[in-house]
Design goal:
281 residues, alpha+beta, elongated
Length: 281
Amino acid sequence: MAAAIASKQVAALVALLAVLAVVHGAGAQAVSYNASAVRQLRGKGGGWLPAKATWYGAPNGAGPDDNGGACGFKHTNQYPFMSMTSCGNEPLFKDGKGCGSCYQIRCVRKNNPACSGVPKTVMITDMNYYPVAKYHFDLSGTAFGSMALPGLNDKLRHAGIIDMQFRRVPCNNRGLNVNFHVEAGSNPVYFAVLVEYANKDGTVVQVDLMESKSPRGGATGRWTPMRRSWGSVWRLDSNHRLQAPFSLRIRNESGKTLVAKDVIPANWRPNADYRSFVQFN
């Protein structure tokens, strides 16, 4: 893990020096947060926005060596991620609120002769700690190379840093419902869960938990708000032993709500996945 972080820091530093060289020679043009950009970042439509793109990890990999990232998603080299992932700087990662959001990306010939101009879709799965622009996608090697003309993937990756365009699009994790992964360390008074595979917005802005009964034995009928721990992981610190099974209620960025009734069984355990029967459609 330490080696991966060090490698990522070195790559980011190289990219930063390259940008500073370009800015010094040609002058910088700032990108402002205008109304169109805000609508676009919220998935409300609008045109393409300019950004910088770099890449990290293996040339044909998913980014981090452990196929994870700061959002907490796992196995990002497998479906539905398929290594088409990206770190986002703060306007994209949003302190974890942007985890799971999907973007179309492209680069055109004027950006680099190896660019195809064909849009590709990536998901935010990690945090970019060293941005070199207002919007900076630090892509997996696979995602960066996907923007190239056929046979020129490596040539484009050799550019290291390029100008590109992006726009927010709905996520479509075809064939999957929302999944809840109970995190390691969860116990009867501490419950942490990773929420993944949400369609449409891709993001989850609130999670609430309902116990099956109160500590005294009666039905609760009450939702207890959880709080974001990090990335797409939500936690609840309880002052009593939590009474399973649990129902979970999630709300997306657009304000739509889903309830996964009794999705966490009475015999739940840490490091286990519990697939729901609900999905944003």
